[in-house]
Amino acid sequence: MSTTTEAGATLPAADTLSRRCRQALAAAREYEAQARAAAGQRVLDGGRVDARAANRNQRILHGLAWIATTVEALAASSEWYVGLQASGDAGDGETLILAIGFGEYLGQLTGGLPMSQNEILRPRELGLAAAAAALEADEAVAWFLDHGNSEQHRAALVEHVRNDGAIAESLGEETLDMIRDQFRRFANERVKPGAHQWHLDDALIPDEVVGAMAELGVFGVTIDSEYGGFGLGKLAMCVVSEELSRGWIAAGSLGTRSEIAGEL
After folding, report:
1. Which residues of 135-160 are buried (b: 16+ CB within 10 A; e: fewer)?
2. What is the CATH superfamily name and number for domain 3-162?
3. Exposed, middle or buried: residue 211 (CB in 10 Å: 0-12, 13-18, 19+)?
4. CATH tag, 174-263
5. Number of Cβ atoms within 10 Å of the Cβ of 174
6. Which DSSP state fits 203?
7. pLDDT tier at 6 (50, 70, 90 boundaries)?
8. Global pTM?
9. CA 18 to CA 79: how far, in whole Å?
10. Tens-place pLDDT, residues 209-234
């Protein structure tokens, strides 16, 4: 059974949307497999990557990475929604986010993936025009392309947020939810109040704020405990970065630098 939001947008039942997501995801994975095969024809020699061929085809490999990442984003979004269904938290806001996201990302896969402001990978570059057409023709994919990222859905999501409608944030793991709450408070209390002036002054984040971030463990979230870190996963780092970025994007970015250096 479909439902109608306060903004007048018609949403499919959660089970129907989940089924369409699974079907569209299967079609997207088939498209990804064809993209891998097409890229492989350009860079593989005897089953191994030829360095010179890879260098010549950097754009194609970059595009393949974007295709794979986009498909995984669809898979993660679908899994997220299934979890919300199980916990009874799949409301209008979450349903709109899923429908809009699938519509947009499937549209990028079939029409052109924006790798940067002026780099768009289109299916024809990989010889995938026919594969993209087949992807578009899939029943579930076609529904998302026609209805997912629609003007009505976007307006309904904006209206939902403007009316203080909730969006489920729980990641289904108590530790991660605690980390989110802790760093949201820190960002609101220590980062956000001064962020705009720091931006206007073209100033660095004050030492006392950086020191407080260090005390909270920002610079060792994924570093192994034997080296003084917390040894948490990449998802925890994403949560920390996201919450600090709510206060100021520079604060959210700062913590990732030590994580990258630690891996190197």
Report:
1. bbebebbebbbebbbbeebbebbebb
2. Butyryl-CoA Dehydrogenase, subunit A, domain 3 (1.20.140.10)
3. exposed
4. 1.10.540.10
5. 9
6. P
7. low
8. 0.84
9. 9
10. 999 999 999 999 999 888 888 999 89
